[in-house]
Amino acid sequence: MNQSRFDAAMSRRTLLGRLAAAGASYIGLTAFARPGAATNGGPQWDDTFELAVDFEIAQPNGGRWHRPYVAIWVEDSAGRAVRTLLLWVNTTGRGPRYIRELRRWTGAEGEQANQVISSISSATRLPGKYSVAWNGRDDAGKVVEQGTYRVFIEAAREHGSYHVMQQELSLSTSPKAVELQGNEEIAGARVEYRRRK
């Protein structure tokens, strides 16, 4: 093979190699361009919105009492856990055995419950008003689709009562708010789909 043919062959190989590398880079970059792209072809969560849950831990009626364990999470219309927003439990001493008292949450999270406990749980709280917001991402950080979701607020107290509050909402591009009736553990709650503050 003479030198000019060798140079031409190398140029073609070099060009093809560079094109292949550029194509692979483009594919790799576009894979990260829109994390959590809608899997069913539906419109994605509008990033200008959030779902806020405002709630109040009730003041006990005297006597010795323990702070309630509280879980707030979101499920999709098929009943699959999408995102745990808040988990207040005691993970030391005798505390872990009472996590099972959050029956609906542990059932919804299933095998992922221990991972969620170790990653997002925090201490139980005194009576008072609290708030948490959901940004439309699932537990893996992917953007969810617009659609119908159910918000759960579950509270259980050692030697106390057990309550689950739930509210279904259709989340699209229209704000909406719902007041939830209180109980012995959660004095009241409000779920609001609103423009991000």
Count of DSSP helices? 3
Proportion in helices:
10-25%
Question: In the CATH scheme, what's the topology name of the largest domain?
Answer: Immunoglobulin-like
Q: Architecture of the largest domain, CATH level 2?
A: Sandwich
Defining traits:
2 domains; 23% helix; 3 helices; 4-stranded antiparallel β-sheet; single chain; Immunoglobulin-like; 197 residues; alpha+beta
Q: Can you lay out the helices and strands and say which pair or pack?
A:
Blueprint: H1 3-33, E1 49-57, E2 69-76, E3 81-88, H2 103-109, H3 113-120, E4 128-134, E5 147-156, E6 162-171, E7 176-180, E8 186-195
Antiparallel strand pairs: 1-4, 1-8, 2-3, 2-5, 5-6, 7-8
Please summarize what this structure is.
The chain has three helices and eight strands. It is of the alpha+beta class and about 200 residues long.
Care to describe what's here?
- The protein has 197 residues and is α+β, with helices and mostly antiparallel strands.
- It has 3 helices and 8 strands.
- The strands form 2 sheets. It has a 4-stranded antiparallel β-sheet, with no helix packed on it. It has a 4-stranded antiparallel β-sheet with strand order 3-2-5-6.
- A hairpin with a 4-residue loop joins strand 2 (69-76) and strand 3 (81-88).
- The radius of gyration is 25 Å and the shape is globular.
- Residues 21-38 have low confidence and may be disordered.
